[in-house]
Amino acid sequence: MEEYQEKLIAVREFLREKSPQQMSISAISRSMGMNRGTVSKYLEILRINGQVTMVYYGKSKLYTVSDRIPAVSLFDYTTDIIIIMDANARIMTANKSFFSKYNRLNERTLVGSNIFHLGIPIFSESSVHKNINRMIRGDKFLHEMQYIDERNNQIYSIKFIPTVSLDGNKNCMIALRDITDQIHTEEALSISDEKLRTIFKKVPSGILFFNESGNIINANSASLRMLGVDNYQDLMKTNLFDLFCRKEKIINALFDGDIGKIEFICDFERLKREQIMPTSRSGIAYFEASFTHISSETGFREYATIIMDVTAERMAKKELKFNESRYHSFFNYTCTGVLIYQPVDGGNDFMIKDVNQALEIILQVKKEEIIGKKLFVAFPDLPISSVRLALNRVNSTEIPEVVPPLQYIKNETSPWLTHFIFKLPTGEIASFMMDIAKDLREEVTYRKTLCTEND
């Protein structure tokens, strides 16, 4: 055995002297005066132990001393628990992680002990025990297993690795790794992934993933519904930038880093006409989108966008704006005076909210002088009791009323005004007023004429 060990070391030192030269088995055999087969066996043992390296040159094998640190010297720097044993299941060595885990053992009592006699549950477990014996015998065995320690619910990965010692004997290495946290993390990630998939499928907003070229790489079902597309393939063939009008607005926002909320328009008739994408929708649609950059392993910058169809909202606002414009045109330019007020002080008075131009002319007042004032404070000459009663009736019953003619200011030039009062949906009260002074004069003139003719 000593002679064997000496020759093994001699081969290694010979290669060290020749380093960095690479030498074939035949060249080493001739130079050292040894049998070629013996040299080949020694070189294979040294290679398995990481002390020499081998490369192919055609069909020849070239060897040189290894620059790597021997694996055994690295064992103490790994958190894995490592044990090396011989063919009789006797411990040859173990690393620091082993002694740290099983602190009741020490190297003096450990070396030479049978691995199955250590009293460590993981090695006494039936399936582990059988697998170690199969590896020792050279039978088929599992290279990796998982083991759950029932005492503390710790989960271990066990690797079984056949090795060869420097003297050529077959050894076995067992590496244990505590993977409890890893398993728990993977389970948590799996749950998170499932939650994200559920959100992706169920959220009513459209979600699109695309790269910097605008190529759509994924989309949820809500996106398909919003865009009127039946299947994913039709959408995947479409460039996002071609879907919307003013695509440069989106491109510039992305490349300038301004990837917040953007509103854009989609003309579905254009998409059909230019055969950009088959869609069942028609007309114009308005979308509101939020963009964000996402990490990618493809080498391309990728983005995600959440889109919401705000067409109904935009059309409602457009209609409202049109109605407001129509209302203001009617309000401001009608020849009838309009006064809008709201009950205050429990119906004892009414705050003036708005008046139109016709009323300013009829009453000879300026809008800014009376808006925000109380009706009976701004016009104390009104018949307060009767006006208050009429306004409160309309406010409570919401039934319009016509008020007999009255004057806002009691003098000879102040007009007599009749009122049509009604309640607005806003809770305010509106009063249309008409100057009947001309009608009264014509009535008086008519009656005087009638009397003269009778005389």
From TrEMBL:
This is PAS domain S-box protein. InterPro entries: ArsR-like_HTH, PAS, PAS-like_dom_sf, PAS_4, WH-like_DNA-bd_sf, WH_DNA-bd_sf. It comes from Methanogenium organophilum. Pfam families: PAS_4, PAS_8, PAS_9. Residues 192-244 form the PAS domain.
